[in-house]
Amino acid sequence: MASPGTGSRRPRCTPTTTSAWPHKPAAFDFHAAEGHSWCVTVDGNGARPTRLPTTATGEGPDTAGASVRGTASEPVLFIYDRIPADSVQIDGDAGLIDLLRAWDPEE
Length: 107
Prior knowledge:
The structure is a single chain. By secondary structure, this protein is an alpha+beta fold. It has a single domain, classed as Nonspecific Lipid-transfer Protein, Chain A, CATH 3.30.1050.10. 14% of the residues lie in helices and 28% in strands. The chain is built from two helices and five strands; from the N terminus they run E-E-E-E-H-E-H. A five-stranded mixed sheet has the order 3-2-1-4-5, with helices on one face.
């Protein structure tokens, strides 16, 4: 899911904003079955994505409060309420995922 012409493999809908996260700072990992992963950190300064190094499933540090795994499109579709929770694998604090899904940085 690269943005055309950028050479980047970052999803087009990467949640980057300077709008303050209204809750305790948190980190969310998003893992695509195709092998790419991102961590989205949210805090009083907004939301910032960071590409995570490629590791085998179940390996590597898991410092996020919650993570979502699925095919490349499934985590995005899930966050935007386009598919149900049972379409993805959720690890960690599902309540944090609910907060992220409900957050509207424009409000």
